[in-house]
Write a structure and sequence with these properties.
Strands 1-2-6-5 form a 4-stranded mixed beta sheet. Strands 3-4 form a two-stranded antiparallel sheet. A two-stranded antiparallel ribbon has the order 7-8. The protein has 2 domains: 157 residues, Schlafen, AAA domain (Methyltransferase, Cobalt-precorrin-4 Transmethylase, Domain 2), CATH 3.30.950.30; 34 residues, no CATH class. The protein is built from 6 helices and 8 strands; from the N terminus they run H-E-H-E-E-E-H-E-E-E-E-H-H-H. The chain is 32% helix and 19% strand.
């Protein structure tokens, strides 16, 4: 979880984690979940995860605390939409990943978005993953994926389910031994003192 006590902390975090700050003021100025939050949710979930801080204005690397007046409304709207398949394909968040944070006299909402598993990806908006509804995080921005990239993610869901299956009747002789030798050499170069370098191929594969 993020540890922030000042605007300087936010600037440092920009260099070390995936971080997005959004104003979340709403039309009445009391607080609302910004619509562009959902592209960020999809993008971070499909990449390496990250944090969204609501209640902070960001411009050209500068941060200005605004806070959120009606934070309970934002939490309610967030979880209602997370569980609405017309809005987003999967809910990755629990209460512990959405927390209030007091900085001075301003209340912020910090949302930790985990990386989705291969079976959960792509995380997309609306019921349709295509036509620009799936995003990926790139260079601190939320970039829509092409339909070809989305198809690749959907195909990888099937590949992971195949990995879970136990294939009966196969043995060490069914492996490409040349590939295994190359892998063992790479492992030995990286871990020269590891005891696994001294065991046979069967034990090594186990």
């Amino acid at each position: 979880m993020l540890g922030i006590t000042s605007l300087e902390d936010l600037a440092l975090l920009r260099e070390s984690v995936s971080l997005e700050c959004k104003l979340a003021k709403g039309r009445d100025g009391k607080g609302a979940l910004p619509e562009d939050f959902w592209a960020t949710y999809s993008a971070m979930a499909n990449t390496d995860g990250g944090f969204v801080i609501l209640g902070v204005r960001e411009g050209k690397g500068q941060f200005e605390l605004e806070g959120i007046e009606n934070i309970n409304k934002i939490r309610t709207d967030l979880f209602n939409n997370l569980n609405n398949r017309q809005k987003v394909s999967v809910n990755l968040l629990s209460d512990k990943q959405v927390r209030q944070h007091l900085m001075g006299d301003k209340i912020l909402l910090i949302i930790e978005i985990p990386r989705a598993s291969r079976q959960q990806r792509p995380v997309y908006l609306t019921p349709n993953p295509f036509a620009g509804n799936t995003y990926r995080r790139l260079d601190e921005g939320d970039r829509p994926l092409s339909d070809e990239d989305v198809k690749r993610m959907l195909a990888e869901q099937v590949e992971e389910s195949r990995d879970y299956r136990i294939l009966h009747g196969y043995g060490l002789g069914d492996l490409d031994m040349g590939t295994l030798r190359v892998y063992r050499q790479v492992f030995a170069n990286r871990e020269p003192g590891h005891p696994w370098n001294e065991i046979d191929d069967h034990a090594f594969c186990r």
